[in-house]
Structure formats: C-alpha cells, structure tokens
Amino acid sequence: MKLFWTLVLIVLYNGYSSEGVNSTHPARPKVVNIGCMLSFNSVVGKITKVAVEAAVEDINSNPDVLGGTKLNMITLDSNSSGFLGIVEAIRFMETDTVAIVGPQSSVIAHVVSNIANELQVPLLSFAATDPTLSSLQYPYFVRTSPSDMFQMAAIAGMINHFEWREVIAIYIDDDFGRNGIAALADQLAKRRCSISYKAAMKPEATLDDARDVLVQVALRESRIMVVHTYPSKGLEIFSMARSLGMTDNGYVWIATHWLSTILDTAGPLPPDKKENLEGAITLRIHTPRSELKQKFVSRWSNLTREAGVTGPSGMSTYALYAYDTLWLLAHAINEFFNQGGNVSFSKDPRLTEQNSGSLNLDSMSIFNGGKLLLDNIFKVNMTGVTGPYNFTPDKNLFHPAFEVINVVGTGFRKVGYWSEYSGLSIVPPEILYSKPPNRSSSNQQLHSIIWPGQTTEKPRGWVFPNNGRQLKIGVPNRASFREFVGKIPGTDSFRGYCIEVFTTAIDLLPYAVPYKLIAYGDGHNNPDDTELVRLITAGVFDAAIGDIAITTNRTKMVDFTQPYIECGLVVVAPVKQQNSNAWAFLRPFTPRMWCVTGVFFLIVGTVIWILEHRLNDDFRGPPSKQIVTVLWFSFSTLFTAHRENTVSTLGRIVLLIWLFVVLIINSSYTASLTSILTVQKLSSPITGIESLVNTKEPIGYQLGSFARNYLIQELRIDESRLVPLNLPEDYAKALKDGPSHGGVAAVVDERAYMELFLSSRCQFSILGQEFTKNGWGFAFPRDSPLAIDMSTAILKLSENGELQRIHDKWLSGIACTSQNTKLEVDRLQLKSFSGLFFICGLACFLALLIYFVMIACQYCQYHPNSESSGESSRSGRLQTFFSFVDEKEESVRSRSKRRQLEVTSVRSVDQDASINGSRIDRSEIYSNRVVSFGESV
C-alpha cells in the first residue's frame, strides 16, 4: 500500500504545472509554521511529543532566539502508517510549513522524503536512523541523531573485541530492519566477520511467526544474536527465545538501542520480562553530562505530568534529541532571516497543469527559501542538552558515541563506551577527544560482562548445529605410508598416526562434534592434497584431515590448525660405507689444509732460524747443517721435541704463538681421526639440495605431494628431471638403479615419510638439512571456529606428552638411525683454522720487521765508513751487509770495541808528537795501525 501511494503521488507531481501564485510574508513574520509527525501510541512518540512541545515553549518564551518570531508547531499522528504519513505531509504543505520535524519511523521517512524533496521543505528526524536516508536521493532529509551505521559499527567492534567471527541477525523485514542489517554486514566485513544467517520477520509478525523464525535460528551453529527491531516486537522475541531455551549459558544477545529505550522509559520491568533479558547487551546513545542536560532532566517529571502522559514516561535519549532538534531548527530559522530570507511559497507547476480532482493537490506550494534554510541547518554549531551539536560534510553528527549496557539483576549496568573516534573504552568519549585517537586492539576495553546463564566467562559463540548434519571430513586414501593414514580394508574406517591425533584432539573439545570420515582417492595412487583442500572451499567437504602439509597456496584457501608434526622437505640418496684403510690417517684434513699446515711449519722454522742465527750457536754452522736444523726444528714443534733453545725475545714470542696453533691443530686432528677410526661412516657424492640442484640428474618425488611444485617453482628445476614415485618400493628401486639405469639420483620428500622409509633401508640416508619448514595440520573452512578449538586441543596434547606417545606408537622402531652409524661429515677445512694461521703469520711478519730494523741500525753503527773504504758499488755494499748479518753478533761487538781502542791510541800518539816537536810521518803511523789491525784479525 505504501508503494502504491508513493507511485500515485509521483505521477501526480510529474503531471501538473504551476499557476504562478506567490504567497509572500514579511522578512520577520510574527509566526512561522512548522510541522511535527509522531506516532502518539508508541513509547517513543509519547515522550518525544512532550520534549518537542517543551522546546517550542522554551524557544517562544525567549525573544532572543528568533527576534520576536514565534514557532507555530502543528503536531499530527502518523499512527506508524506510511499512508497516513503521506496524508499528513500533504496537509502540512497546505499551511505554508517551512520545515517538518519527524517522522520517527524510517519507513515513513522514506515516503515523506519524496514530498520534502519536491516541495523543498527540510525534514528533520531524530528517530529515523536508517543509514540509507543520508544518501543523495534525499537531500532535504536531515537526521538529527546518530545513524544506525555508527550503531552497527559499535556492534561489529564488540564482535571483533570478543574474537567472534559469525553472528545471526534477527530483524524486522522493512526499510528500517533491512538497511540496518546491511550496514552491520558491511561493518563486520571490515573486521573479517560475517552474518551467518539472516532471520527476517514480517512487520506484523505474530508470536507463532517469531517461534518459527527462532526455531530455525536455534538450528544454526552461531550463538551470537543481534536483534534489530522495534521495542514492541523486541520483548516478544526475547520472551519466545527464553521459552525455547535460547537465553541459557553459551548464548550472546545483543540488542540495538530499542532495548535501552525500553529500559529508560518503562522503568522497572516486570520480573518475567526482566528474566527474559538477563545477560543481554544493548546500546544507548551517549550524551555527556552537562548543566543544560541536568536542568532538562530535572524538569522532565513536571513536563510529563503537565502533558497528561499515561503509562511509561521515563527520560530517553530520543527525548533529548527531539528537544535539541527544535532548537537546531530555531537557530537555523533565525540565521535564515538574518541573511534576508523570507517565508514565501509558489505553486508547483507540475501540480497545476493537471486536473487534480478532489485531491486538491494544487493547494501544495514550494517553499522558495527551502534551500537557504537547509544550508543554515547544516551550518548550525550549538551546544544542546545532548552536548556539542554540529554536522560533518556527509550530513552526520560529529563524534557519534554509544554506551554499552549490560542487563543484569534488577536493572542494568554500564560496561563501557564506543565512539567513532576511539572505539571501545571504559573512559567517557569526551575525555578521549583531547587525546590522539588510538584504535589499537590493546586499547579496546570493556568492563566485565555477566552473560546469559549468569556467567562471567566469555561464551565461545558457536556450537555445532542441532539439525543432525554430520561434518563431512575428507581423508586421503593413500597407497603408501599407511602408518600415517590408512583405510581399513572392507570398512569405511581409517587408522594411523594422523587419525589418532585427530580423534584424541576432538575428544578434548568441550562439546560433541558429529562427523563422518570420507575417503578421497582410489587407494592405488596417492591423491593430490591440494585438490582435497580445494574441495573444502567448493563445499564438497567440511574439513580435511591426514598428512596434509601446510603450504602458502593452501593457506589462501582454508584455515589450518596448529601443526601437530614438523615436516620439511629433505633429500634422500644412496650412501656407501666408508671403511678405514691404510691412508685413513690423512682423512681428517683436506688436501689444502695439509699443504698450508706444512708450509707454515717451514715458514715458522725459517723465521726462528733468522731470529736466532746471530745469537744462538744451535742455529749456526755449515749450510747443510743449518738446513737440517731448520727442517728438524720446524716439524719437531708438532711434538714439542725440538732440542734447540731459543734465546732471542722475538724468537720466543713467535715460537709461543706457533706452539698454540700446533696445539689446536693437533687436538682437532686427534678428535677427527678418532671419529674416523671408531665410528662407521657413510659417504655420498650428493651433500644436500644445493649439490642436487646443480646436477642434471633425475630427481624422484612422491606422487600427489607439494614437493613437485616446490622444486619447479621455487628451485627452478626443469620438469623433465622430476620422476613421480608412488610406493616405498618404487623409491628403493629407483635409488638402487640410479640415473644410469633409468632410476633417480635422489628422492625429495617430507621428513616424516623418509624417516619411515629409512627405518628398514640402511643403504639410503638423508643428506644435508631440511630446506623447507613445513608442518602437517587439519584443514577447515576460512574463519571456522573449529580450527581454533582444534588448535587449542593439539597444544594441550603437546604439553601433556600425549602427542609424543602417539608418535612413538605409530612411528617408533627406526632401525637405521643408530648412533653408531652416521653420514660422513665434512673434513676439517682450512677456513676453520684461517684465524689461527693469520695470527701466526702476522706475528712472524712483525718479528722479522722489527729484527731487520734492529740489524739495519747496528749496521749503520758498526760500519759507518764502509763507503770510504772503497766499497762504493751497490753489489759490494749488499755483500758487506749480508756478511754483517751472517756474522755472529758477539764478534761484531768485540771488533767494534777494538776499533774504538785503536782510534783512541792514535789520537794519543798525535797529541804526544805535537807536544814533543817530533815530526813523525803520519803515513807510517797509519800503516802501523793497519798492520796491527791485520795481525789482530
């Protein structure tokens, strides 16, 4: 019926033309007409009627507000009917109305907004909270209270805060209910949550209708109920839910602000209705404390008594916003007049061109100043009983906020706040506005809540549905390694390590999980686990268990539980026993290590010889003896058996450092040789995945494993090199045959499989380290709460040791992993001792540098006249220097002393000759000195 009258009205509007009649008023008229549409028989209508009448009286009694102009408010009862709303709107337009306050219903607001748009009359509603009314379709609609978009954001914030993922929406199937729930779905989607089921009710639903809807709700798994309806219907829904046992422990009921309106206006509820609401959560629009609010609240009882209100008449936030709406309109009208606006109307040309018959539609006029008044409404910045009052560019109020109310005992308690600015908090929003916004999860807080069933423990939020449907769980029907997952022949049952982990974990859950294991695969070839996971997203399976590796592309499709076994990829290849032989003593070091060590023995021996040669008689003698001394001293230091003593300081320092290096080398050699001679060794030309990738030889992998894609996509191995293998026997045959006989050089597979494969095949071994870090887990649909609970159960199994017990039961008895057999490790490399050799070499270099500097200084001191004695050629000087270096230092020092004595004696003879006047030929004296020097030599 609403749609019919709307279409009729639109057709009539489009068919008539204007008569050009103007109705003009003075710039400041004595009276301005405004309309008010309410539903007098509703709880909200009764109290808001008192509030708007009080506001008009307060405005008219204060001449400063409108400069002497009075508001004439015409109040009509829409009786919650869209049709009557249209009729009332038409009646308002016949009385030169400049604005309409109301309606309180979103459904009626949708209809009346079309008339307001056509006649350019602002429509101000404090109770029509449908978010879609703010669209561009209704430019003359002004919402003067927070939109349901913010209320739904608050509910979504609570859902996310308590870590729930799915909710059930119970709502009235009209514009108000549908659009509100659509806003909730949008807000939940932002937080990776969703509405799992929408339980819609007819606006005129009976108790039987409510029962049928709630029975369907009870069959669903989610236990988070969001009720978005009208006050009269909401209490009926809670009453029916309690009769069905849906308000017990485990349920969560979240009601929109219709419930807080009842609690505020109706006063103490009867005990039976109060029990229905026990533990419920609701929202109330937050209005900060202020002196204006306190004065208005104190007047409320007198206002309701003077208005003759019967029945519930408590204060509600709707009354506060209704009061502020009239003041908002008064301020806008005053500014309208200040800007030169006048109250004038003109006929709608589209209404006058057609014969309206008895409808008298041509009596409706367009408000010429409607656009100017609308602009002034959105520009108003005032402080009312609800606090600061102004609009954002998208026509919503600044800083919308809600109080979170918990219904408990005989009343209710405030457990926190929600604001668009800072989210959930236990501090009033107006205090947080002075601080930077903080929406981090750690900052989202609420006080403790008493949930249905009088428990403070947060409900899990879901159970398995009671509709008798079992979970269809896919299990890979393997052809190999049945110790992990194996189907019992002739039955539909499964056994194995993975199956026992699953059944043990599911037994730890605090609720029953009906399920049925369904085989996936023919049992002759290993199935593709990735395809099994994909079938979960397609709805074929509700979950998948077994030896399913957790990989990146699989996590994009489903949610996995906590890994119950670590299982990365490894390389398995044939190995041969490395027995001891006559040359086993050479194995501890690599050839380069042997060469460098030998060279350093010679270098250190030579350095010690140089440092000791001029001082130590043990390092002097014929050349052949000195060569033998160097070689003997060098290698005897390995056993500290050298007979020669070191007397120079530099030589002792170098020897001390070298003996330390020899100690480390000797200890490492001894340990490695002991291991070689006492522990059985295995060797293979393949040392790990790196050496395998660098070859061109074929590589085996398990059929159906993710290893194939990993080798191709991640390691860039050519697909032609990969050989699929199905059974352990296929592994063994391919490895024994080798690449030369149609086999493979190595097999790449997960460690759990390979350890089981190697338990009875000692001729193969794992080479290198795991080159991936994977684990096995159970797969569930995205955002499945069962995945979280199963992860918790797996962690409990790990902590209490049960997981290890299951592992030992199915995977124990590894025969070829004895500690007496191990794969040959790398020989001692040069890089392991490079630091020691560097220190020793540096010490030798510095010692030689210091030594030659000292020798040069001595040479300059003891041979100052080498050039004057005729040895001026370079070769002669160099020969003299080497002769000096080879000479024993003691001889050099004694010769230097005799030379000084000779010089002293010559000087004394000269002095005597000059004193006695004798003339002695100096050449003779010098010749005598030379002869005497020669004789002494």
TrEMBL record:
It is found in: Membrane. GO terms for molecular function: ligand-gated monoatomic ion channel activity. Disulfide bonds join C762-C816. One of its GO terms (cellular component) is membrane. GO terms for biological process: cellular response to oxygen-containing compound; response to wounding; signal transduction. It comes from the Eukaryota. The keyword Calcium does not apply. Residues 1-20 form the signal peptide. Keywords: Disulfide bond, Glycoprotein, Ion channel, Ion transport, Ligand-gated ion channel, Membrane, Receptor, Signal, Transmembrane, Transmembrane helix, Transport. It holds the Pfam family ANF_receptor. InterPro entries: ANF_lig-bd_rcpt (IPR001828), GABAb_receptor_plant_PBP1 (IPR044440), Glu/Gly-bd (IPR019594), Ionotropic_Glu_rcpt (IPR015683), Iontro_rcpt_C (IPR001320), Iontropic_Glu_rcpt_pln (IPR017103), Peripla_BP_I (IPR028082). PANTHER family: IONOTROPIC GLUTAMATE RECEPTOR. Glutamate-gated receptor that probably acts as non-selective cation channel. Belongs to the glutamate-gated ion channel (TC 1.A.10.1) family. This is Glutamate receptor. It comes from Anisodus tanguticus. The lineage of its organism: Eukaryota, Viridiplantae, Streptophyta, Embryophyta, Tracheophyta.
